[in-house]
Design goal:
Elements lengths: L6 E4 L2 E4 L8 H13 L2 H7 L4 H14 L6 H14 L4 H16 L10 H12 L2 E5 L4 H9 L12 E3 L10 H11 L6 E5 L2 H9 L3 E5 L14 E3 L5 E4 L4
Parallel strand pairs: 1-8, 2-3, 2-5, 3-4, 5-6, 6-7
Helix pairs in contact: 1-5, 2-4, 3-5, 5-7, 8-9
């Protein structure tokens, strides 16, 4: 499918992916993931016995069905998930906590494409609600958009959803849960992502979909079965008339 110069749609709300859609995939893979990976063991060691330490270990024990799992084994499991880029909730939770420290220390910033702030402001002005849905934890998403080269974009977003609050992104049930949480029927919602499987799941739940393929995406401009844009500047949204 060709990349459209402009897509016009009517929706009460737009839900956006992060990696490859609002932010650079390479930033996540080359900056954020390695930053968290090398800090898993020292982060847990520095917080041994604290509430956060117990939270992370309990999540790993539940996920692995190993209630007696110790810290060293938990570290090994978390590092294994990190190396495999597993969408494991305990890993995503810990990554978010580590990144939050990095943002607070000024060592990290959230990458967003230049068209993102203007698109969010444009949709806000037109009355379209704006949400983020990512496999990264909700706190990590909040920190990402609060620490961008364009400043704090938090006021341009209505909410955030992750694997805990909505479910996995390749499952239609997750988008039904999102629609219920937002309080808007699926046909009045629009989802944007660079991943065909995610867009297919949203479409199966009755949502409108628009694929985003950035010019630097090595997969090329085609996303089969979905309208495709190369920039959020090309997505014109308006709420339905009352």
């Amino acid at each position: 499918m060709r990349t459209d110069s402009a897509v016009h749609a009517t929706a009460h709300a737009v839900v956006l992916d992060i990696e490859g859609t609002t932010g650079s995939l390479s930033h996540v893979r080359d900056v954020l993931f390695p930053y968290a990976r090398q800090r898993i063991a020292p982060w847990l060691a520095a917080r041994r016995g604290t509430a956060q330490w117990h939270q992370v270990l309990a999540a790993v024990r539940t996920r692995t069905s190993a209630p007696e799992l110790g810290e060293l084994d938990a570290v090994e499991q978390l590092e294994s998930w990190a190396d495999a880029d597993a969408k494991a909730v305990p890993l995503k939770t810990l990554q978010g906590l580590i990144w939050a420290d990095g943002y607070a220390a000024g060592e990290l910033s959230g990458h967003v494409y230049p068209d993102v702030p203007t698109a969010l402001a444009r949709w806000k002005a037109s009355g379209v609600a704006r949400y983020i849905y990512s496999s990264g934890s909700e706190p990590a998403q909040r920190a990402w958009f609060a620490h961008t080269p364009y400043g704090d974009l938090s006021d341009l977003l209505n909410g955030y959803f992750d694997l805990v609050s909505a479910g996995h992104k390749w499952e239609a049930a997750s988008y039904r849960a999102l629609a219920a949480a937002i309080g808007v029927p699926g046909p009045q919602l629009l989802f944007t992502s660079d991943v065909g499987e995610e867009l297919g799941a949203a479409s199966a739940a009755g949502w409108q979909t628009v694929a985003v393929r950035r010019p630097d995406d090595r997969r090329g401009p085609e996303v089969t079965g979905h309208r495709t844009i190369g920039s959020l500047d090309a997505l014109e949204l308006r709420p339905p008339r009352a």
